[in-house]
Specification:
245 residues; alpha+beta; Alpha-Beta Plaits; 6 helices; 8 strands; globular
Length: 245
């Protein structure tokens, strides 16, 4: 099975509700997956509409060179990003990954990465990416998706002013469940993420519900170091977070 080693993300924020435009159909050497997804939850729109204020271009790459080329070609691949209020883009290197997702092979979900980097310094900012997915077939139960989604919304609501959190967002790809929805969160350091993820509160409760009720057919969790970044997100660069900011 194909595996990736690097991630690219491009986040764009607009001041009016819109849908994303397609990416240009160009040769993308070393790109195992790329897709445009919308934060419809934050816009209070239906996921199928793909109408939102915030969008993500998510890429999985065979090596660092592919990820860097992908960002370097942004204006050719997605010129509509130039209309955004702000854009933050980064090359990420995973250092921890568990679970399965369907971005690399839709019909055979599995782990995403071939190898992982050593963990960064304990004080380094990190990016966490989580995903959830469902097998759509004869036994598909939409109520499980709704219950899981309600849990995601409750977690997002609980994250206001969480210590060490820069921002949080979640995204649906077109056709909603064809590719696994995902969340992207920025953290000041690993300790801040661990305190939120495993400490008492809504997030731990939702993890327990998933284990007990099996609301999703698969989930994944990835922690990444930032290799390269450019731009701002909500006015600042998440890679520049400090204990005071």
């Amino acid at each position: 099975m194909t595996r990736a080693t690097y991630v690219s993300i491009q986040l764009a924020r607009f001041d009016s509700l819109r849908t994303a435009e397609d990416m240009a159909a160009e040769e993308r050497a070393g790109v195992h997956f790329c897709g445009v997804a919308a934060d419809t939850r934050a816009a209070a729109t239906e996921p199928a509409s793909q109408q939102a204020f915030k969008f993500l271009i998510f890429g999985l790459h065979e090596d660092a060179a592919s990820a860097h080329r992908f960002l370097d070609n942004r204006r050719a691949l997605a010129p509509w990003l130039d209309e955004a209020l702000e854009v933050w883009e980064a090359v990420l290197q995973p250092f921890r990954h568990t679970g399965e997702a369907n971005y690399l092979e839709r019909g055979q979900p599995g782990p995403l990465f071939d190898s992982l980097a050593p963990p960064p310094a304990s004080t380094a900012p990190i990016v966490a990416i989580t995903s959830s997915g469902w097998t759509v077939g004869e036994a598909f139960d939409m109520s499980r998706v709704r219950e899981f989604s309600n849990g995601v919304m409750s977690v997002r609501a609980s994250m206001t002013a969480v210590e060490g959190l820069h921002s949080q967002q979640s995204f649906f790809f077109p056709r909603v469940l064809e590719y696994d929805p995902l969340t992207v969160t920025f953290w000041r350091d690993s300790a801040s993420l661990r305190a939120f993820a495993y400490g008492a509160g809504v997030h731990r409760l939702q993890m327990e519900r998933q284990r007990e009720q099996n609301l999703a057919d698969r989930t994944s969790f990835t922690r990444c170091s930032v290799v390269r970044s450019d731009g701002t997100w909500h006015g600042t660069d998440p890679q520049r977070m400090t204990a005071a900011g």
